[in-house]
């Protein structure tokens, strides 16, 4: 079964350049990139253009989108709910970054060391990486259940309703997302910390620098680009956090966890206002790409590029 | 000056997981980070323990006892219930989606990366930049037009509808990893092959393909995880039970099972088993695959 589907799907969208004439020159022709480019262009770049067009239309999901001028954009500017969703997204982004970065940095640097128990411990705390977002959200919904959850069996924690209290539910979401992604960022930091030449620490020790001095003068500066990479991924990730919240809280209670991607999804696929949802999507696209560009540029875009090339 | 030393070190270590470097680093234990790691370990272990132990409980046991106490009378009944539901179908769908996505991504990025690494033409480099922009683009922003395109192409509610966009959005990272790996192949090897009269395609097949195996593995692992865990595209582009994938199936179980939490926990546990087995077999590939392409 699996095999037959594979055979029919793989070659159809863009055949590999098997039939290309064998060039007489030694270098491969640029056409070798064409299938990948065409495929990516059709399913990823074209939609980016299309979503801008759709934001100027009225479309209920059936039939064809009807041009509606700037109506969606005028509505978006005046929409208090959209503004709230956007502010909530920013809050979520900042808090998620602030929670994950120190934890991942410290554990990553620690795990970069070389002792036996570290290997075992690190492979244990990477386990959340194996669970899908859906599985993690369902697991935590059950762990935090106000009646039968694990938190209800623990002292102190049992006084909180993590998923029902409008004041703390957004931080609950931050926690679940962090639980899922801290191991990943820890891996990034662990890999980077291992690349730091040992001799630097030896020299610092001879100069009499203590551990914390060494951390702030050697480790942290040399991990600068990892911090950037990791931060960019977290920022883009915050804009795409969607399935966790949909499963965990559905955006509620009320609208307390309805961040912008979820607002877009609900507007489009539950409210059937695809034109208006497209306007929100454009906003997400611009903000997401803009923020990650901003972060990379302000903190040394060129340098990161050359690092990528050195990979 | 130290910063310039980093990329060269990275270059040699990139395709292979980091190997032991240096002997003991520091004598004194790092208390703060070590303590934090232990706290984190507990925070990871407790929910996972709850997941597995909860899936072995009867419903009465679940409702009446402390969730942290081991089940008094472990049962596999929940697993049977899950397996008699739609689970096998969802699993098969997920496997098909995953394999097809990997085939497309590897099949397209390998020749693409070969062109990028060996052809400095403007078309190729612009194309590479375009694909790299994809790294910063949230897939959500594209979901409405993708939905429109898929319905117009009459592919709605098919597995292909999930496979194609998933592959497209997995492509930038995959290409980045492939390009970085192929750039490490010494130019002399290409020249030697060319002197022997091999055309670009023969070079791709007999030189690039074998040497890119670590990168192909990494890309396959990364793409598999993306496809296996995909939620948004299946949610929006499929509908019927026949095309439901595992992640959506789990979500559906939540509604369907109502208060049968042990059943839900069994379903979640089962959904992790295939990845967990993979993890046990190829831990280093999996871990390097997860962080592939993301800097030093």
From TrEMBL, chain A:
Transmembrane segments: 30-56, 85-112, 124-143, 168-189, 222-242, 262-295
Feature: compositional bias, Low complexity: 1-11
Membrane association type: Multi-pass membrane protein
CDD domains per record: TM_PBP2 (cd06261)
One record GO biological process: transmembrane transport
A Pfam family hit: BPD_transp_1
Ranges of residues in domain ABC transmembrane type-1: 86-295
Region (Disordered): 1-26
Keywords, in A-Z order: Cell membrane, Membrane, Transmembrane, Transmembrane helix, Transport
Main location: membrane
Localization terms from the record: Cell membrane
GO cellular component: plasma membrane
InterPro entries named among the record's database cross-references: ABC_transporter_permease, MetI-like, MetI-like_sf
Protein family membership: Belongs to the binding-protein-dependent transport system permease family.
PANTHER family: ABC TRANSPORTER PERMEASE PROTEIN (PTHR30193), INNER MEMBRANE ABC TRANSPORTER PERMEASE PROTEIN YCJO (PTHR30193:SF37)
Protein's UniProt name: Carbohydrate ABC transporter membrane protein 1 (CUT1 family)
Organism this protein belongs to: Geodermatophilus normandii
From TrEMBL, chain B:
PROSITE patterns: ABC_TM1
Membrane spanning residue stretches: 31-52, 90-116, 128-150, 156-179, 215-237, 257-281
A GO biological-process term: transmembrane transport
Main location: membrane
Localization per record: Cell membrane
Keywords: Cell membrane, Membrane, Transmembrane, Transmembrane helix, Transport
Bilayer topology term: Multi-pass membrane protein
Domain of life of the native organism: Bacteria
Pfam families hit by this protein: BPD_transp_1 (PF00528)
Occurrences of domain ABC transmembrane type-1 (ranges): 91-282
Region (Disordered): 1-25
Gene Ontology CC annotations of this record: plasma membrane
Family under the similarity heading: Belongs to the binding-protein-dependent transport system permease family.
Name of the protein this chain belongs to: Carbohydrate ABC transporter membrane protein 2 (CUT1 family)
Species: Geodermatophilus normandii
